[in-house]
Design goal:
By secondary structure, the chain is α/β, with parallel strands linked by helices. Helices cover 46% and strands 11% of the residues.
Length: 466
């Protein structure tokens, strides 16, 4: 393709894309960047790539045009059970350890596929869990799958795939878990699709952990073949966010080609044949050298009377509350919760400073939820509601905690209370629609006894999930 865009324009575009999506195109890849924008420009309504760039850097693109460009910039290469060594370690070591430690107690698993593209990775996880958990109906399973590419997410939600998505996997996997349609597409059954929740999330810009995006208290995060495209500063920001989103002893899985000493600043490296994974240690302080992003969504909401924005920053208050808020923003949820608990036990806190008591109760609920301590988190959310009964944001907070408990009818009731107080509460509308759609659907069928996924022959199918 002959040159259509100058290096000066491509440099401007590259800087904007880095700030917007965190993606970095070194100069040797500017021809790729040019090809992308030239191809996307007509679809966005522009005559040329130069016109597209001018509109983009001046901030005059519509949301729809931005979605089109993002979909061209973030086309992912993925397929089922990609990089099988990582999945073998997940199947044989990580998941069995988590399952054994939770069985008969708090039977919950929370997994996040960050940069999920068209969904093959999170669906692979869902299939793996049906094989590992014969009693899966007795577990509260969360598989969150996020991406910035709305077109990829739309395709993922339908669960329809072509032959190319099955390269390198045994034939029995497709035969046992998919139904072939007349158009040559293979469809996942609803019982597998309903295990995965898809959502838009910009790793470079959005804040996490956050109750509103369900990115808190994760056991496992998979972010494979994504960080390699980020510039170094944004990589560290994303890794820091993942660290805070994981429970202590939680796991981060990246692609083998992305393994780097930068992870060792906050994670313990665990080697296995063919690669390594990273585990969060039980550390009390924020890892040295990791950037703490100042995005507001990672901080707890102020929940001021009449307010609904859980992502807004509360006004600074003197003493223990302000110290706890600082710890929370640094990802030190355990220390923040301890400080708040001591403060809230003081008679003076409950009797003399009711607005501050309410703020502290909300902050404690969120700190506990980010640690996976759902029962005490709910107790403090209820106490915050008792103090500020007209705050829609508090009912939304309580609904997210109910949802993590698997108490969806209670979550729906709490969301309706939030919307009664504030009908324009967008997050509550979205959450209510999602939960309502889930109601009335058939439960998961009994799962077969687990057999080693990568050692099964084509004659040893796992059973039908159609």
């Amino acid at each position: 393709m002959p040159r259509q865009i100058s290096d000066q324009q491509l440099s401007r575009l590259n800087r904007f894309v880095t700030d917007w999506l965190g993606l970095h195109f070194p100069k040797k890849r500017w021809r790729d960047l040019e090809r992308i924008v030239v191809h996307a420009a007509p679809e966005m309504g522009f005559q040329s790539g130069d016109e597209c760039i001018e509109q983009l850097v001046s901030g005059r693109l519509s949301a729809g045009q931005e979605e089109i460009l993002a979909s061209h910039l973030t086309i992912g290469e993925t397929y089922f059970f990609r990089e099988p060594n990582s999945f073998e370690f997940l199947e044989n070591h990580i998941l069995p350890g988590l399952i054994a430690s939770r069985r008969g107690k708090d039977q919950r698993l929370r997994i996040w596929s960050a940069g999920c593209s068209t969904g093959e990775e999170p669906y692979s996880i869902a299939i793996l869990l049906t094989r590992l958990l014969p009693d899966i109906r007795d577990w509260q399973i969360t598989i969150l799958a996020t991406d910035i590419n709305t077109r990829a997410l739309s395709k993922a939600s339908h669960g329809l795939y072509r032959e190319w998505s099955f390269r390198g996997v045994p034939d029995w996997l497709r035969q046992s878990y998919f139904t072939r349609g007349a158009n040559g597409l293979f469809e996942l059954p609803h019982t597998i699709r309903k295990m995965v929740s898809f959502a838009i999330l910009n790793l470079a810009d959005d804040s996490y952990p956050s109750l509103s995006s369900n990115t808190n208290a994760m056991d496992i995060i998979l972010c494979r073949n994504v960080l390699m495209y980020f510039e170094p500063g944004r990589q560290q920001q994303v890794i820091s966010g993942f660290h805070r989103s994981l429970l202590d002893k939680g796991w981060l899985i990246v692609s083998p080609c992305e393994a780097s000493p930068v992870f060792s600043t906050c994670f313990e490296t665990v080697m296995f044949p063919g690669g390594c994974v990273y585990q969060k240690g039980s550390r009390k302080t924020t890892p040295h050298g990791m950037a703490i992003p100042g995005a507001l969504g990672a901080a707890p909401g102020g929940c001021a009377p009449g307010g609904t924005g859980l992502g807004s920053v509360v006004a600074a208050a003197p003493g223990p509350y302000e110290d706890a808020l600082t710890l929370y923003r640094q990802g030190c949820y355990g220390e923040a919760a301890d400080l708040l608990s001591r403060f809230l036990e003081c008679p003076q806190a409950a009797s003399g400073v009711r607005p501050l008591f309410g703020k502290a109760a909300v902050l404690l609920a969120q700190a506990l939820a980010n640690q996976g301590r759902i029962v005490p988190a709910l107790e403090w959310a209820e106490k915050a509601i008792a103090i500020d009964k007209l705050n829609a944001g508090l009912y939304y907070l309580r609904a997210t905690i109910f949802q993590e408990q698997g108490a969806e009818p209670l979550a729906i009731a709490s969301l309706r209370q939030a919307l009664y107080l504030d009908h324009n509460f967008v997050l509550a509308h979205v959450a209510l629609e999602t939960l309502t759609l889930r109601q009335g659907k058939s439960p998961l069928p009994p799962s077969p006894v687990r057999r080693p996924l990568w050692r099964e022959s084509s004659t040893c199918a796992a059973g039908s999930f159609r």
